[in-house]
Fold each of these.
Amino acid sequence: MSHTLQATPPGYWRDTEGRLVAEALIKPIDKAREALVHELIDKARVLSRQIEQFKAAAFADIAAFVELSAEQYGAKIGGNKGNVTLVSYDGRYRIQRSIQDSLVFDERLQAAKQLIDQCVQTWGANGDPKIMTLVNDAFQVGKEGRINTGRVLGLRRLDIRDDDWQRAMQAISDSVRVASSKPYIRFYERVGDTDQFRPISLDVATL
């Protein structure tokens, strides 16, 4: 299938292969389909731009409000940082702004892995099989060639009194850094008189 943009002579259409087809040879149903597709795509593009503009304005308004609220206490904070939940006075509506960090490990993770391997070798057959499984799973490389950060960081929750293990956990903590941060904004409304909230979806696929 060719997607190269080329000038189409008057009286002709291009098919999916890029070939010229005389308009007189195109069936009415194909022409009707073409008109419908372009009409809906044009509307979708307008709606997409409106949502994009609304999202940017919503983030800016929330950041400004966070700054305004902080000023009540003489504090200066970054309005675009951190997670924030705003609730309407009657508790019916809720807006959540969250920042999701993408974490990666630097070269110090290799030192942590070596120390952990030393621990596993020292424990040998006497080691707890559950811990062995957690260690092995933590350093498995996924389909994208990356180590699951959640599993590696989860090792720090294990209560193991071993000097090498503790040094490994410190190396893991030191090796973590934020690669990128992505902000999200979500809108909710209370379901009747319950304590449950349902999302106000802005995703066409879920409506």
Amino acid sequence: MKVRRRDVTYAEKTSADAVICQKLKARRDIGEMVDPQNRNSPLAVYLASPGEINIDRYINCMIREGVEVVAPRWNGKTYDLAKLKGLDEKNLRRGPMGIREACDADFVEPKEVYAWIIPGLAFTREGKRLGYGGGWYDRLLASAPKDAVKIGVAYLFQIVDDIPAEPHDITLTGIIEG
């Protein structure tokens, strides 16, 4: 799957990025959770590594709309959820794994987050997710509310019939492909 992702052309990637950002914006279940006038939950996102679907356009839109957006930030042992102030150089740094993360930030507990956007290597339509082997998202999601919306984002080729799953793997509530 990593090789297939690496073979995606720039045009295919930018098209998929834009389609997925539009589909995320249209999701009523996410909107209801993060709406400042409704539940007002923080929105947990990821900051894309080079091969992943880039959702920066969606993140910027949510921040402009007043949604509290959080993303994983390495604390030396594991990942916490740090509030994002913006996606420019003054607000982000490269973490130890080369992934962008918030510089100076306040933190949010996963139990406070009712909407999650999650990357992965492969997904099934039933919500199984194959990550990168560290279990970071499963640990964060284990503390999320049971009724949290958990959406995976993927290229169409990343959606497969079946993938291996462990008892601790968290099932997603939906997949968006581009």
